[in-house]
Structure formats: structure tokens, C-alpha cells
């Protein structure tokens, strides 16, 4: 009886003091692998001229600092631009280009260009199902000088078959917003 | 339907063989004249179960001397020999067993004091009804217990308006350490491993800890006291979710020598359905095991037990949002963003949880009056949460936490004449490890925690009708965490200067910090029990409890993907202190019984999440919720009544109301359960099959008291950013559900079989519940037919 008690206590002691160890040396900071820190939209005039770059950069990811939004210059009225959008994670080391990943999973992603009176955006790429992705597009600037907001939104798992979605109307798209940026842009007379 | 007809034939066939035999009938009650629902009555190979009114009938008993055993788990069995010559009535009064030290309820025998702790039970027969559901669902049967849900598979008990870290769950006397801080982390426990579940509102049972500001949930395993081998299997089939559960267990009881229990559960559900649409990705799976072995000697017993809980739970696709604009769209559209055809497949977002619990227990009688219990428990909780991710990270968990807890405790109990003394010490070590492989900065950091506690409780019976109980407890706790902070976050939280001493390493954009906190807490309880006459009893309690901030309240600092909110803890968070007063008045009558419990709980430094602004990221804006501390007052009343309307009919009423106020701002507290009224009519046929019909009406009123934490989000519309109101605060309208249940017992060979048929939400009512975290996105589940078969052998 007494032996039993002693051996029980011994067992308890062994189990509890051998199985707890802390190893602080193994600690490494987690770098966000999935965060998009930087969106760059590049507009190249079809007939040559000044390339316009719109960029939003948030180097603390989901941290408290807001993204820094820059617009390199004014668009020119009546000009057609070839547009591309790239996505980077600058928190990863080395910097990760997420654009290719979005392209490969094009059937699960779509970019939307929302604006009012700034001109016309047309998709210039397709996913495996023949639906637009939006990484490539053309922008026809409005014929007259104007200014306004352009919101570029990347949706993950949108419903690409819903009404209007393949024409770039976001209303019925659903899914989750992976990135959304609003740029204030000017279209100037040539 | 065909099945029912077959069943009917089977029953008719069985009833033909009655000749020159007698019927034994009667009522099984406890010492307080409360009917015992589900007691076993055996005569030879014939057996029956008592119905909810406590009555039973055993037919076809051969005349002559017969041994009758009437037993009920947790109560000492009646074992007697009667001479049966004609139809006879045998009423049995069973006494509560207090032989096990872990039992909370003091023995009701006249020798010891009456308990001043109010403990409300969910009995085995009720737990069995919820075999394919969860513990949280079953606990809702107790007035004053609501449920905080995430969908329908993650259900947490809310006791008098409080939940999570404020409501510890004790399984087989072990405090469940399953990352209970999270509102979407339900108790990691198989409901089918429980023999009885009880709730103690408030922190008056100090032997379990001094921090149960809301209350305690005690889960006790099935234990068979007699020398018998008993088996049970339950099969439940549900129409909603097109799935069900199978559970089986074997129990070997013994008065001496070896006793053991073993069992397992398997659950499989696909998408649940609301009246109007499929709730996509709401399936769940569970595969659980539990077993124990016990050696019982004259003066001591030794036991070892192990349980394993393994669950995969889908989180409704529609609740996954990318930004505040998505949330605004979800709320304003009123319909889920994702509705797919029914499937059993569970995709991200989902949770995968494993919980191991191993325990060694040694009980010994030190003298005829005193007992000592020693216990060691090991728990390993592994939680993985998967989110909708891109590319290579697609199948990688977004959160991966492993929590290991060792706990050691010694409890001593002395009972003699009018005095009961209880005392004990406890020690625990806990280690949390957040896997860095997720590629997402973990909300909960790595930490080590050490706890030690000691308590003493004394109870004295002053007169036959008056006893009192007082307790005191001290707890020490030390937390040592390793946490990375983004430097921008560290600065925005104002930690610069204040917590510089925590900084260990500079990693460029991040600080590695080593926050350490030590807490010394005192808790106390005082209770009295006054019996006015055999039917009236008054119990009054006053309690002081202290709860330390949990890891999420201290350390959270980032995007909570499942909520679409940025949650910020605060290293300055102080412990909560609760002062609770409650009174229970009980009346036991042959026609009307009731129990009413008014209470007031004043909590200083009450910790809660409050929206304090928005932050912009490249995904758009997110609302920022910060853990804030204010003084709170919760007052309320719980009511339960049973009315016996004749021999067959019983009417039951449960009501609960809680009024929570932030005393610093005079605002209502967020997430307080609305007023609920639950009416049931139970008709028992008092026949040999214990047939019953039950109609239940559940009325949940609109919560009109809520703080307005609404905010505006910029939502792109026609190319312009338009500020849109995001109404996260307004509670949904009240709702009313009707449920029906029926059942009967019959014997198949030697097997006692019960069949029951239940319809929940008969009218397929569309509703949303204030405390279901899915409510902003989807309706709650619609009608559900449940067919359950139970075999006792």
C-alpha cells in the first residue's frame, strides 16, 4: 500500500518534470507570406509617350500604417493605354512576386476597374475558361479632360459566371477582396 | 413509416404472452421527492426505465419471490426481494451517493450539512438526446445558460451572460485547457463520454478554481457502481446536415476489484441547411475515444483514464470576408455571399482540433471520516485553423497552436457529524507553441504559464434546517511569453517607453519581446442553506472571484481572419474581479415545483472587445477592435418550474433574463443573451413502453439593450468610394421555434431498446440568433428530423 503511494508519486513527478521544456533559441519572426504589400498598375501609351504608374505600397502589411498611394502623372485625353498590374510581397525575403500566382490561378481571381467617366477599361487576358482575369487590360482615356477616382480591386474566388462579372461589373461578383486601392487620377488635354 | 408499422407489429406480438403473471409498477424518486428520469428497474431478465415523471411499469413478471434491483447512476441502488402474487406497486427512494470525492454535491443524508452550492444537472437521459449535437446544446436545457455559437457545430455555454475564459469546464475533475479564450473555440469534448453534466453559476465551488466569474461546467463520466457489465449504443440520424452519429460504450462496474469503461463516438455531417438555402461548408466530423480503468480496494482506489477528441469543423463560406467593404455588402444584402449545392466536403475555412486528456487518480480513506485524492492530468490540445489562401499556402493552416498542460492536485475531505471540511492544493504548468510554419504572424504567442493554488472550505450544519459554508482560495500565476511585435504596432499601441524592458531582440521591422506577468489572487465564498419546511428551501451565496487576462486579451495584435477584424490586446490589461450575490428559492411540491434565482454580479475591470476605429491595408479598411476594461454590472433572474397536471401531463417552464450594463459609460454590455422563455408539455402514457410525447416552444425575444458600435466603411460604388453604414450592433428580431419529440422503449431479445423521433423547428422558421457569430451573414438552420435508436445491454 505504502509502496504503491510512493511509486505513484514518483511516476507523477517523472511525467510532469520531464515533459516540459521551453526552447527560446528556436524563435524566429514569422514573415507574412501571403500579404500583398505593393500593387503597381503600369499604363503604356499605345502610340508611345509617357508611361503612367499608379502604386500603392504598405510595408507593414496588416500593421497600423496605412498604404502609401502614388500616381506618377496625368493621363492624356483620347489616348489608348496598354495596362498591366503587378502584385508584390515586399515583406518576404527576397521580395515575392505574386502576379504569376494570380495568373496561374486565374480562374479563381479577377481584377475590377471601377470608375466614373474616366474612360473605358477592357480586359485583355483570359483564364483557362475563357473568362477575363484583368492582369492585362487596355484603357481608353476619356476624350475630354476630367478627373476622378479609379478603384482597382482584386477578388479571390469571385463568381465569374454571374451577370456582368465578365464585363468588369463587380456588383454580383461575390468572393473576398484580396486587394483594393483607390487612385485619384487626372486626364489632361494633350 | 413502414418501420413504424413493423414496430407496432413487434410490440403487439410481444404483448400477447401475458398470462398468470403480474405487473410491478411504481415511482422512483430521490430523497427530495424529485422524480428520477431514466432509472433502471431489473427483475431477472426483465427490465424497464422510469419515465421523466419517475414512474415505471414492469409487466409479465412470474409470480413468486423475485429479486428487484432499481438503480440510477450516481445514486445507491435499491436491491431487494419481494414476493409477487398480484399486480403490485413498489415506490423507490434512491439516495445520492457521496462516496466519490470528486462529487460536488454533499450527501443529502441527515448526518451532514446541506450544500450551500446550487448545482443544476443535465441528466444522462437528456445528454443522450443530444448525442449527435454538442455539450453547449445540451447545457441550454438549464435556465440561465445560453449558447454562443459559430454556425451550429461550435457551441459555447454562456452562463448568466458570461462565457469562454469566465466559464471553466471541468471534465472528470480536470480543468479542460483547450484554448477556451476564443469565442469560436468550443469545449473539446465528446458529449457521449459524459454521464452527467452540471452547472454551478458563479465561483462558489472554490475547489475548482477561483476564476469562474461566470460559472462552472462539471462533466462527470458514466460510472457504474454495481458489479455489472453494461453496454450502450446510440445511433442518431439527422435530416438537416444529412448525417448523424454512432456512439458505443461498455461499462464494467465493481464494488471491489477492477472496473472499467470504454467507448467511442463517430460523427459525420454535411452542409446544414437554412429554410431558404444551403449553409455551404458547415459540415463537421468527429471521431472520439474514451476509456478508463479503476482498481477498487477496501480503503483506496486507483484509476487511469484517457480520452481523445478529434474534430474537423467547417466554417460557413459566406462568413469569410476580405475587408470591411465585403462585410458591409454581406450585412446589407441579407443573403449569404456563397451558396453552393449540398456537399459533405469540408473546405477552408475550417478548424481541425485534437485534444488528448490522460489522468491518474488515487483516492484513499485516511480515516472513517476523511479522504484524500491525488490526481495528475496531462492535456495536449492541437488546434489548426485553415483559411482561404492562395497558391502554395492553400493547404497550410493559418493558425497552428499546440497547448500542453500538466496539472497536479491533492484534495482532502473530512466529514463528521455536522462538519464538512475540504482543503487542497493544485499546481499546473502550461506551454503554448504557435507554429511559425503558417506564414502568418500568430495572434497568440508562445508562452509558459505556471499556476499554483490552495483552498479551504468549511461547512457546518447549525440545525436540521440550517447550514452554512465558507471558503477561501489563493492562486498564484506567472506568464512568460515570447512575442514578436511589428515596430509600427508597438509604437501605435504606445508601448514605447512603457514596456522597453520587455524588448529582447531587434529584427528590423519587428521586436522580439519577452513580457512576464505575475498574479496573486484571492477568492472567497460564503453560502447558507435554509430549509423552511420539507418543501421550501432557500440558498444564498456571496462570492469573490478573480480572473487573470488570457493570452488573447494581452497579446492579440493583428488581423483575425475569421472575423475580418483587427484585434488588439493590451499588455496593460488588469485582472477582472467579480463580486456576485445570488439567492435561490426552491419549492418542491407534488403538483408544482419551482426554482427561482435572482443574482447580481459586479465585475470591476471587465474585459471586452470594442471597435475603436479603422485601419487601412492594401485589402481595404478593417475595423479595429480593442480589448477595453470597464466596470460592469450584470443582474438577472433564472426561473424553472414543473407543474404536474394529472398522472400523464407535465408542464415545464424555463425563463432567463440578464441585464448587463457598462457602469463607466452607462451603455448596455455587448452580446448579452436576450430574454428567453421555454415552454414544454410532456405527455407520458405510463404504459409498459414508457411512451411519451413532448411539445416544446422556444421563444427568444429581441435583445433591445445593446451598445451601438456601428461604423462606416468606404465601399466602392460606380467608381466612387461611398461611406456605407456597417451595422454590426443591431440584434436580429426575436424568434419562436416549435419542437416535437416522442419516444418509446421495447425489448429486442435481451436488449432494452429505445426509439425516439424528434422534429426541431417544425415550421422551418427563418431566424438569426444574436449570439450566433454567423448572424451577420446567414440565417440559422431550418427544420431537422432526428431519429434516434438506443440499445442498452
Automatic annotation (TrEMBL), chain A:
In the UniProt record, the signal sequence range is: 1-21
Q: Which UniProt keywords apply?
A: Signal
What's the protein here called? Type 1 periplasmic binding fold superfamily protein
Q: Which organism is it from?
A: Flavobacterium beibuense
TrEMBL record, chain B:
Q: Which UniProt keywords apply?
A: Cell outer membrane, Membrane, Receptor, Signal, TonB box, Transmembrane, Transmembrane beta strand, Transport
One matching Pfam family, short form? CarbopepD_reg_2
Report the subcellular localization: Cell outer membrane
Q: Specify the domain of life of the species encoding this protein.
A: Bacteria
The TonB-dependent receptor plug domain covers 126-215
Tell me its family: Belongs to the TonB-dependent receptor family.
Listed name of the protein: TonB-dependent receptor plug
Amino acid at each position: 500500500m505504502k509502496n504503491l503511494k510512493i511509486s505513484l508519486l514518483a511516476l507523477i513527478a517523472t511525467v510532469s518534470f520531464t515533459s516540459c521544456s521551453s526552447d527560446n533559441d528556436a524563435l524566429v519572426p514569422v514573415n507574412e507570406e501571403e500579404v500583398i504589400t505593393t500593387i503597381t498598375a503600369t499604363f503604356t501609351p499605345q502610340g508611345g509617350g509617357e508611361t503612367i504608374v499608379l502604386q500603392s505600397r504598405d510595408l507593414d502589411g496588416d500593421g497600423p500604417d496605412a498604404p502609401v498611394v502614388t500616381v506618377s502623372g496625368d493621363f492624356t485625353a483620347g489616348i489608348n493605354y496598354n495596362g498591366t498590374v503587378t502584385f508584390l510581397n515586399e515583406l518576404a525575403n527576397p521580395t515575392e512576386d505574386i502576379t504569376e500566382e494570380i495568373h496561374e490561378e486565374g480562374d479563381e481571381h479577377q481584377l475590377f476597374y471601377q470608375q466614373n467617366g474616366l474612360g473605358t477599361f477592357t480586359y485583355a487576358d483570359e483564364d483557362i475558361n475563357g473568362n477575363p482575369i484583368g492582369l492585362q487590360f487596355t484603357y481608353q482615356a476619356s476624350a475630354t479632360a476630367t478627373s476622378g477616382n479609379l478603384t482597382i480591386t482584386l477578388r479571390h474566388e469571385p463568381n465569374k459566371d454571374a451577370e456582368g462579372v465578365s464585363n468588369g461589373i463587380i456588383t454580383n461578383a461575390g468572393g473576398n477582396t484580396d486587394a483594393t486601392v483607390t487612385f485619384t487620377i487626372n486626364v489632361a488635354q494633350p | 413509416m413502414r418501420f413504424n408499422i413493423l414496430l407496432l407489429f413487434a410490440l403487439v406480438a410481444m404483448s400477447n404472452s401475458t398470462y398468470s403473471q403480474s405487473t410491478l409498477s411504481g415511482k422512483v424518486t430521490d430523497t427530495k421527492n424529485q422524480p428520477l428520469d431514466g432509472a433502471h428497474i431489473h427483475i431477472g431478465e426483465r427490465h424497464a426505465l422510469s419515465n421523466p415523471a419517475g414512474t415505471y411499469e414492469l409487466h409479465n413478471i412470474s409470480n413468486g419471490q423475485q429479486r428487484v434491483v432499481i438503480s440510477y447512476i450516481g445514486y445507491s441502488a435499491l436491491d431487494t426481494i419481494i414476493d409477487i402474487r398480484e399486480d403490485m406497486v413498489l415506490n423507490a427512494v434512491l439516495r445520492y451517493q457521496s462516496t466519490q470525492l470528486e462529487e460536488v454535491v454533499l450527501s443529502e443524508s441527515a448526518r451532514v450539512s446541506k450544500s450551500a452550492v446550487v448545482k443544476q444537472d443535465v441528466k444522462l437521459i437528456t445528454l443522450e438526446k443530444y448525442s449527435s449535437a454538442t455539450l453547449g446544446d445540451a447545457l441550454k436545457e438549464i435556465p440561465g445558460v445560453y449558447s454562443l455559437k459559430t454556425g451550429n457545430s461550435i457551441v459555447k455555454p454562456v452562463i448568466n451572460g458570461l462565457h469562454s475564459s469566465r466559464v471553466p469546464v471541468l471534465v472528470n475533475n480536470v480543468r479542460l485547457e483547450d484554448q477556451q479564450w476564443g469565442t469560436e473555440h468550443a469545449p473539446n469534448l465528446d458529449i457521449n463520454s459524459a454521464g452527467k453534466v452540471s452547472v454551478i453559476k458563479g465561483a462558489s465551488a472554490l475547489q475548482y478554481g477561483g476564476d469562474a466569474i461566470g460559472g462552472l461546467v462539471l462533466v462527470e463520466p458514466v460510472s457504474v457502481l454495481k458489479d455489472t457489465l453494461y453496454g450502450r449504443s446510440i445511433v442518431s440520424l439527422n435530416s438537416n446536415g444529412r448525417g448523424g452519429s454512432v456512439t458505443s460504450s461498455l461499462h464494467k462496474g465493481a464494488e471491489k476489484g477492477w472496473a472499467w469503461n470504454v467507448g467511442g463516438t463517430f460523427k459525420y455531417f454535411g452542409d446544414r441547411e437554412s429554410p431558404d438555402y444551403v449553409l455551404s461548408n458547415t459540415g463537421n466530423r468527429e471521431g472520439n475515444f474514451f476509456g478508463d480503468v479503476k482498481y477498487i480496494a477496501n480503503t483506496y482506489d486507483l484509476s487511469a483514464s484517457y480520452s481523445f477528441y478529434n474534430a474537423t469543423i467547417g466554417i460557413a463560406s459566406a462568413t469569410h470576408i476580405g475587408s470591411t467593404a465585403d462585410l458591409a455588402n454581406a450585412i446589407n444584402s441579407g443573403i449569404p455571399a456563397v451558396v453552393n449545392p449540398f456537399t459533405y466536403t469540408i473546405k477552408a475555412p475550417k478548424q481541425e482540433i485534437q485534444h488528448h486528456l490522460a489522468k491518474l487518480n488515487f483516492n484513499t480513506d485516511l480515516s472513517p471520516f476523511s479522504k484524500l485524492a491525488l490526481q495528475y492530468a496531462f492535456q495536449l490540445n492541437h488546434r489548426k485553423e485553415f483559411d482561404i489562401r492562395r497558391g502554395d499556402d492553400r493547404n497550410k493552416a493559418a493558425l497552428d497552436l499546440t497547448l500542453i498542460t500538466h496539472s497536479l492536485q491533492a484534495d482532502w475531505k473530512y466529514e463528521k457529524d455536522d462538519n464538512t471540511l475540504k482543503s487542497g492544493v493544485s499546481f499546473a504548468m502550461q506551454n503554448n507553441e504557435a507554429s511559425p510554419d503558417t506564414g502568418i504572424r500568430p495572434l497568440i504567442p508562445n508562452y509558459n504559464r505556471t499556476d499554483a493554488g490552495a483552498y479551504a472550505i468549511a461547512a457546518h450544519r447549525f440545525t436540521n434546517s440550517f447550514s452554512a459554508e465558507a471558503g477561501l482560495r489563493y492562486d498564484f500565476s506567472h506568464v512568460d511569453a515570447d512575442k514578436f511585435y511589428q515596430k509600427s504596432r508597438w509604437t501605435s499601441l504606445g508601448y514605447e517607453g512603457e514596456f522597453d524592458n520587455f524588448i529582447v531582440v531587434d529584427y528590423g521591422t519587428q521586436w522580439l519581446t519577452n513580457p512576464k506577468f505575475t498574479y496573486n489572487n484571492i477568492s472567497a465564498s460564503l453560502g447558507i442553506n435554509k430549509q423552511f419546511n420539507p418543501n421550501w428551501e432557500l440558498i444564498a451565496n456571496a462570492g469573490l472571484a478573480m480572473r487573470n487576462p488570457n493570452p488573447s486579451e494581452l497579446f492579440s495584435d493583428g488581423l483575425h481572419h475569421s472575423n475580418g477584424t483587427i484585434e488588439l490586446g493590451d499588455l496593460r490589461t488588469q485582472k477582472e474581479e467579480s463580486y456576485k450575490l445570488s439567492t435561490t428559492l426552491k419549492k418542491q411540491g407534488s403538483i408544482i415545483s419551482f426554482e427561482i434565482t435572482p443574482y447580481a454580479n459586479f465585475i470591476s475591470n471587465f474585459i471586452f472587445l470594442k471597435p475603436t476605429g479603422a485601419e487601412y491595408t492594401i485589402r481595404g479598411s478593417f475595423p479595429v477592435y480593442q480589448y477595453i476594461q470597464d466596470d460592469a454590472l450584470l443582474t438577472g433572474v433564472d426561473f424553472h418550474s414543473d407543474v404536474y397536471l394529472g398522472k400523464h401531463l407535465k408542464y415545464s417552464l424555463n425563463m432567463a433574463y440578464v441585464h448587463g450594463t457598462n457602469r463607466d459609460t452607462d451603455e448596455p454590455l455587448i452580446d448579452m443573451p436576450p430574454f428567453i422563455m421555454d415552454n414544454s408539455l410532456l405527455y407520458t402514457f405510463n404504459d409498459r413502453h414508457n411512451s411519451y410525447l413532448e411539445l416544446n416552444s422556444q421563444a427568444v425575444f429581441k435583445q433591445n439593450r445593446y451598445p451601438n458600435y456601428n461604423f462606416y466603411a468606404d465601399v466602392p460604388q460606380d467608381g466612387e468610394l461611398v461611406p456605407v453604414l456597417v451595422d454590426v450592433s443591431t440584434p436580429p428580431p426575436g424568434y419562436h421555434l416549435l419542437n416535437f419529440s416522442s419516444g418509446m422503449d421495447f425489448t429486442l431479445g435481451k436488449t432494452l431498446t429505445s426509439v425516439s423521433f424528434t422534429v426541431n423547428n417544425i415550421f422551418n422558421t427563418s431566424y438569426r440568433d444574436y449570439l450566433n457569430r454567423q448572424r451577420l451573414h446567414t440565417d440559422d438552420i431550418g427544420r431537422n428530423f432526428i431519429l434516434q435508436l438506443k440499445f442498452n445491454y
